[in-house]
Amino acid sequence: MSTVAPTPASRNTPRKGLNIALWIAQVLLALVFGMAGIMKLTQPIPALAQMMKWPGDVPWELVRFIGGMELLGALGILLPAATRVLPRLTPTAALGFVAIQVLAIPFHISRGEAAMALPVNIPLLALAIFVAWGRFRAAPVLART
Length: 145
Hints:
By secondary structure, the chain is mainly α. The protein contains five helices and no strands. It has one domain. 78% of the residues lie in helices and 0% in strands. Helix 3 packs antiparallel against helix 4 (89-110).
């Protein structure tokens, strides 16, 4: 009985599928956090408070800071990996999104907003953990040489 070594294409198939899934997750996170960040940076606080109650209950500087971090994270989750310039920033941005969600979940629960917020926060947390794990360990993007 002879064993046949796997071809390079067959060895890369699981990694290729994982890489595609990671890119999809990265784009989804960039879209969600990019749009949320732009909204928190540009909309008047009273308008934000009508859409989501919490911006009217916290200092406006905090709302703008969160928006800025979300926008920077949206750029950081895509650009370093896409350009292969400092690609370790991509999983670092994903960890930033993990931190945002880890803080947002108890905040919304404490305000009685769990039913509305958790269906958004938990999937975003899962996607961010997936990207952090994937880009740090399973399928890191190599820097341009």
